[in-house]
Amino acid sequence: MLESNKLDLFFGEIYLSLIKSLEKASGGPFGAGIVIEGELISVGTNEVLRTLDVSRHAEIVALSKATEKVKSIQLPNAIILATHFPCLMCYQAIKIASIKQGYYIFDSIETNELFSFKRSSSFLADLDISSKTLDMDQSLSFSKYRSPRIEELFYNTFLNSWNTKFRNLLPQYYIC
User: DSSP secondary-structure letter at 94?
Assistant: First the structure.
């Protein structure tokens, strides 16, 4: 478990990388990081538009950088930080890497509503998976993280930047 001051610091570093990525129009408003032994060892941002590879989500990029750095695909002592609750592809990749704990800022409903993404609300139900099932997953504990620093940085500054600047620069990034 990470202390809130460390989480604020690490999410702040993810925020800075995310803003740089959005300025380059690399992908959508998603960032992630991997922490091992109290150190942020990798940060990933969404690279879908830059690479034209639909699998280059922030969590996948962060995992790839971390596994390369530690020379192993297994990260059992790692903690993942994500700006948004992971999609099913990323969630499964996190589990394959043996990560047992994670924190996110925006839940799926907030991602849809605050970022104007038009995801199908029945997506999990279509796959016969409930959000309650994911919450009960004993092999991976994901917790929503909120603090005054996160409130200011992500819910105020980042959302304002996304809605007034970046969303208009990335019109092709709407998720249907």
Answer: H
Q: For 38-68, how does the pLDDT look when each residue is reduced to its tens digit (9 = 90+)? A: 999 999 999 998 898 999 999 999 999 999 9
Residue 79 to residue 67: CA distance in whole angstroms: 13
Q: Hey, what are 44's tokens?
A: 């990933």
Task: Look up the pTM and report it.
Answer: 0.91
Contact 19, 30 (CB under 8 A): no
Find out whether 44 and 59 touch, Cβ atoms under 8 Å.
yes
End-to-end CA distance of the chain: 35
The alpha-helical segments, DSSP class H, found in the chain are 4-23, 48-51, 58-70, 88-96, 108-114, 123-126, 131-135, 148-150, 159-161, 167-169
